[in-house]
Amino acid sequence: MNVIRPFAAGASSAEATDPYIRDTIRWLERAVIGLNLCPFAKAVHVKGQIHCVVALTTDLGEVRDWLCSEMSALVAAPPKERDTTLLILPGCLHDFLDFNDFLGEADALLDAMGLAGIVQIASFHPRFQFAGTDADDVTNCTNRSPYPTLHLLREESIDRAVEVFPEAEAIFERNMDVLQALGLQGWAALDVGPRVDPIEAPGSDRSLP
Prior knowledge:
Order of helices and strands: EHHEHEHEEHH
Shape: globular
Radius of gyration: 17 Å
Structural class: alpha/beta
Number of strands: 5
Strand content: 5-15%
Distance between the termini: 27 Å
Largest sheet: 5 strands, mixed
Strand order of the largest sheet: 1-2-3-5-4
């Protein structure tokens, strides 16, 4: 796992960002890899090819800047060093509907940068909810992360993964079955929620459950 912090190097930057990174790695290892929700995640994690970056900001304009910067950096980096990026956003988009709306802006930025077909943006959120499900439906947990997170993937890596796992479309159904068998108590027992309070914008009284 490669880690980049949004401040100058030093103890203060690590102290500020490392808790969010630890929470995200724990979720990745216990849920995503541990439950095999993504059969492709273990290999890149073991090889240290996941680039993990925390944007400690409550400003969406700065999030857009971070996103553009990280997409450019992903494309520029050798795949063997950085295959994918997790952009962790503990300071904003706590509301899932706001986050979902922002995904349209994210895809528009990707298109404007000429990266359509090169980079794909996936998403995870503490309150993720599939259309047509109740908020407490355990199947929503397949896409629930400790903090709002944008997952930047190389399209070529996705293509290679699909070649290795030709029945990729079956992953979704399998994940639904796994979560339903696990149940909400089983998910809670994984202890993959946030251990750090989210960063709130001035005047905000929203918090994660």
